[in-house]
């Protein structure tokens, strides 16, 4: 913290690096089709410290295991936890994953994603397990209301998991929340060379003052809000780190291009 301003460093693409075994993370699979690269998905699962499938996400994991030679490459195919209101869970998937800790969360005032973070928080505390982050596999296509609900959960995550970062991983993008303060985001060289897209969006409230360095179209103390300026379809300069200084919580999203391969 400098002059009362919180400072954060981000390098979440390292969670996707199959050679990186030092980072510990929890993996959540939500109820969306698994469109992530096949071999990368296997690596992501195998390297996870805690594995959670959320309601219908359990079905998707079950069907993934029946593709190609997936099952033979998986170290432990059964998740540590299966949770949700269970209205989408197929009996054959439930029977296949005998041994998983089944946690039913019937409360309809929260989404299965939000409730899964609460279940995960309890598990980490009870099991005295420490992780460096939470990777949530959830493709961003499909119903708009569910896409927005997932972003809402990202905003709620700090109130559930404290400072533990939560990243939403889609087929070709990574999204997380930047709270007020100064953020340094490491950008892999391949994303800069291919001029992959990135964006900064304030959901729910106006950002009065946002300054960036390292983007092709930087912001310089500008405000952002819906109906006015938003930083979408942006990309990178040649700098390896993007810095973002913000007075308001923002959603940062970055295209992955072929980095997951």
From TrEMBL:
Pfam families: TPK_B1_binding, TPK_catalytic. InterPro entries: Thi_PPkinase (IPR006282), Thiamin_PyroPKinase_B1-bd (IPR007373), TPK_B1-bd_sf (IPR036371), TPK_catalytic (IPR007371), TPK_catalytic_sf (IPR036759). This is Thiamin pyrophosphokinase thiamin-binding domain-containing protein. Residues 181-250 form the Thiamin pyrophosphokinase thiamin-binding domain. One of its GO terms (biological process) is thiamine diphosphate biosynthetic process. NCBIfam families: thi_PPkinase. The keyword Transmembrane does not apply. It comes from Timema shepardi. The lineage of its organism: Eukaryota, Metazoa, Ecdysozoa, Arthropoda, Hexapoda. Keywords: ATP-binding, Kinase, Nucleotide-binding, Transferase. Gene3D superfamilies: Thiamin pyrophosphokinase, catalytic domain, Thiamin pyrophosphokinase, thiamin-binding domain. GO terms for molecular function: ATP binding; kinase activity; thiamine binding; thiamine diphosphokinase activity.
């Amino acid at each position: 913290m400098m002059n009362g301003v919180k400072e954060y460093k981000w390098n979440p693409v390292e969670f996707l690096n199959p050679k990186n075994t030092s980072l510990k993370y929890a993996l959540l699979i939500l109820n969306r089709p698994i469109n992530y690269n096949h071999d990368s998905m296997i690596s992501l699962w195998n390297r996870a410290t805690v594995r959670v499938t959320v309601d219908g996400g359990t079905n998707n994991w079950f069907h993934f295991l029946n593709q190609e030679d997936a099952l033979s490459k998986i170290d432990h195919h059964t998740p540590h936890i299966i949770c949700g209101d269970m209205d989408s869970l197929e009996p054959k998937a439930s029977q296949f994953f005998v041994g998983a800790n089944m946690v039913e969360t019937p409360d309809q005032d929260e989404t299965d994603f939000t409730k899964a973070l609460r279940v995960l928080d309890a598990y980490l505390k009870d099991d005295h397990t420490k992780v460096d982050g939470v990777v949530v596999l959830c493709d961003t296509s499909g119903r708009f209301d569910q896409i927005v609900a997932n972003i809402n959960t990202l905003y709620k995550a700090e109130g559930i998991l404290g400072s533990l970062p939560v990243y939403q991983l889609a087929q070709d993008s990574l999204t997380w929340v930047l709270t007020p303060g100064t953020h340094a985001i490491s950008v892999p060289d391949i994303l800069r060379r291919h001029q992959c897209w990135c964006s900064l969006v304030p959901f729910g409230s106006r950002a009065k003052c946002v300054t960036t360095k390292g983007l092709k179209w930087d912001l310089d103390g500008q405000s952002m809000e819906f109906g006015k300026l938003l930083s979408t379809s942006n990309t990178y300069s040649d700098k390896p780190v993007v810095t973002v200084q913000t007075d308001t919580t923002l959603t940062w999203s970055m295209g992955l291009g072929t980095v997951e391969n």
